[in-house]
Design brief:
The protein has 261 residues and is mainly alpha-helical. Helices cover 59% and strands 0% of the residues. It has one domain. Bound molecules: zinc ion (2 copies).
Length: 261
C-alpha cells in the first residue's frame, strides 16, 4: 500500500508555499523555507517542547544553532513577553554543558626542551568534548528535509505552462538553490527554464547595479531614482538567499489565542 500513499497533500502545501514565494518576489524555495522554519520553531515553543521525546531530540543536538536560537528568542519575544520557554530550553542545554566546561583544561602541560635545548612541539590533545551547541540543530535538519521537498515539487510545477510563465516573469531561484536544483533535477525542461531565467536576472542586476553607481556620481545625482535603487538588496538576495529572521509569520496562531500550552 505504501506505493499508493498519496503525495497530494504535502505537494499541495508545498505548491501554495512556492506560489506565495513567487508572488512575493525573490527565490520561491528560500521563501518557503523561511516560513516553514519559522512555523517549526514557533510550534516547538508553543507546544512541541512539552513533549519529552521532542525535547530530548533537541537537547541531543545541542539545542538550536546560532541562527535558530536567536530566531527562537525573537519569535518568543514577539508572541510571549514572559520569555519562559526559551529560559527552560537554555537551562536544559546549559545543564548538559556543565560537564563540557569541566573538560576544558585549566592550563597547558609544561613543554620540556629536548636534549639539544630546542622546544618540543606541543602534543595534540585528543578532543574530549561531547556536546557542541547547535551541532545537530533540529530546525536545520527540518530545513534541509523541506528544501529537498520544495525543490522536487518546484521541478514538477515548472512543467506546468501557467506556473512556468509566472516563474519566467519572476526573479527566480537564488544561486544556491539553482545549484541545488542542477544537482538533483532530472527534467531538462525545468532546468532550461531556471537557467534562462537566472541568466536574464543576472544581466538585469548587473545593469541596474551599474546604473546605481552611475547615479552616485555628483553629475547625475539629481536624476530621479528608479528600479536600480533596490538592486543591491536584490543582488544579495540572489547571491546568498533570504535572511532567516525576516518577518513572514501570518500562519502562526492569532494574537487572541496566544496562550502557551
Ligand atoms: Zn533560495
Ligand atoms: Zn539551525
Amino acid at each position: 500500500m505504501a506505493g499508493t500513499k498519496s503525495k497530494r497533500k504535502p505537494a499541495w502545501h508545498a505548491t501554495s508555499a512556492l506560489e506565495r514565494g513567487l508572488a512575493d518576489g525573490g527565490c520561491p524555495v528560500c521563501h518557503s523555507l523561511q516560513r516553514a522554519v519559522r512555523r517549526y520553531i514557533f510550534s516547538f515553543l508553543y507546544e512541541g517542547m512539552m513533549s519529552g521525546s521532542a525535547r530530548e531530540r533537541f537537547l541531543k543536538g545541542g539545542g538550536f544553532c546560532r541562527e535558530h536560537f536567536w530566531q527562537a528568542k525573537n519569535i518568543e519575544a514577539e508572541h510571549w513577553a514572559d520569555g519562559f520557554g526559551v529560559a527552560i530550553l537554555c537551562e536544559n542545554v546549559l545543564t548538559r554543558c556543565q560537564h563540557e566546561v569541566e573538560q576544558i583544561p585549566e592550563s597547558k602541560p609544561e613543554r620540556k626542551p629536548t636534549l639539544l635545548g630546542f622546544p618540543t612541539r606541543p602534543r595534540r590533545q585528543p578532543a574530549t568534548f561531547g556536546l557542541t551547541p547547535g551541532s545537530s540543530c533540529t530546525a536545520c535538519a527540518m530545513r534541509m528535509e523541506s528544501e529537498n521537498h520544495y525543490l522536487a515539487v518546484l521541478e514538477e510545477l515548472l512543467e506546468d505552462t501557467e506556473f512556468s510563465q509566472r516563474y519566467r516573469r519572476s526573479a527566480g531561484l537564488c544561486l544556491y538553490h539553482l545549484q541545488a536544483a542542477a544537482g538533483q533535477w532530472q527534467s531538462s525542461a525545468s532546468l532550461a527554464l531556471i537557467k534562462s531565467t537566472a541568466d536574464g536576472e543576472v544581466r538585469k542586476l548587473i545593469a541596474e547595479l551599474r546604473e546605481f553607481q552611475r547615479k552616485h556620481d555628483y553629475q547625475y545625482r539629481h536624476e530621479p531614482r528608479g528600479q536600480e535603487s533596490t538592486s543591491p538588496q536584490r543582488a544579495i538576495r540572489f547571491l546568498v538567499g533570504l535572511r532567516a529572521d525576516a518577518s513572514t509569520h501570518s500562519e502562526e496562531v492569532p494574537a487572541t489565542q496566544r496562550k502557551r500550552r
